[in-house]
Amino acid sequence: MRKLQCALILTFVTLLPLALYADKLVMNDETILEGVIISDAFGRIEFQMQDRIRFIDKSEIRQIIWRNRQMRISKWGGGFDFGTGYGHFTGRMNEYFSDHIPLLVGFDIGYEAWRLQLRNYIGLGMNTKQSFTYDGTWQQGLDTQIIHPEASVGYEFAIGANFAVIPFFGIASMHIAPPEKVRDTPGNDVALPFSTAIPMGLNYEYRFPDHTDSANKVDGTLAAYWIIRLRVAYVIGTFDGYDPRFAGNMVYFTISFGAYIRARSFEEKPILEDI
């Protein structure tokens, strides 16, 4: 009877850590090699114990250990970023308006490597370089700002694990006017109306490395990550459609911080059918 009690206690002590370990075991599609290693390890332990404990069933151990959660990453994803940078007009537009500092808020919708990028760009700190008349009189030194919403489509080219380049092309609009408080002053209620614009350029992304466990990646692809993005754009303007004096385009670059996330799903099934 004492031998039986000792055997039962030893069985419980042996299986308890295995069950606790199996409960913490979270795997993805990359972990078959880990499964083999674990299988070997438990095979040796079982072989070492079988002279003393002969009634441990391999199938029971397999049921405890080889249940796992396999992660799938969706092809769809979404993200956001916000930042600032520097903007400059070219052509005759540069004769009338100074450079500016943009504030940028953006959202990404992705499918595989394709990206739809929606951005709202507000250029601050801009003023007129000279007096001119259009929709009223613009006094020299008048505080103005540019509003530039844009939508663009890009395709991601990964460079290693942490870098990517996304060329983009899209459609946008531009509007230049004094800020609302300035426009409330008599004589300053002037504006260049919204006009169509064509943005194009490159996004350079740095993705922060993920040093956590494998629950955030499959085949080296991260399900979620933080990014720093450098965006360089050339925007073809059409203000000259209102007046030839306003012929010119805009060049800007922004540095922004954000994140990109893909949906994750988990499927539980055995890695190996036999030990």
What keyword list fits this structure?
275 residues; disordered C terminus; Porin
Short précis:
With 275 residues, the chain is an alpha+beta fold.
Describe the global form. Answer: elongated
Order of SSEs, N→C? HHHEHEEEEEEEHEEEEE
Number of domains: 2
Straight-line distance between termini: 32 Å
Unreliable residue runs? 12-56, 62-67, 271-275
Write up this protein.
It is a single chain. The chain has 275 residues and is an alpha+beta fold. It has two domains: 2-65, no CATH class; 75-264, Beta Barrel (Porin). 21% of the residues lie in helices and 50% in strands. It is built from five helices and 13 strands. The chain has helices at 2-24, 32-49, 58-65, 93-96, 180-183, and strands at 67-89, 101-111, 114-127, 132-133, 137-138, 143-155, 157-159, 163-177, 192-207, 217-218, 221-222, 224-236, 250-270. An eight-stranded antiparallel β-barrel has the order 1-2-3-6-8-9-12-13. A two-stranded antiparallel ribbon has the order 4-5. The longest helix is centred in the N-terminal third of the chain and has 23 residues, at 2-24. The chain is elongated, with a radius of gyration of 31 Å. This is Outer membrane protein beta-barrel domain-containing protein.
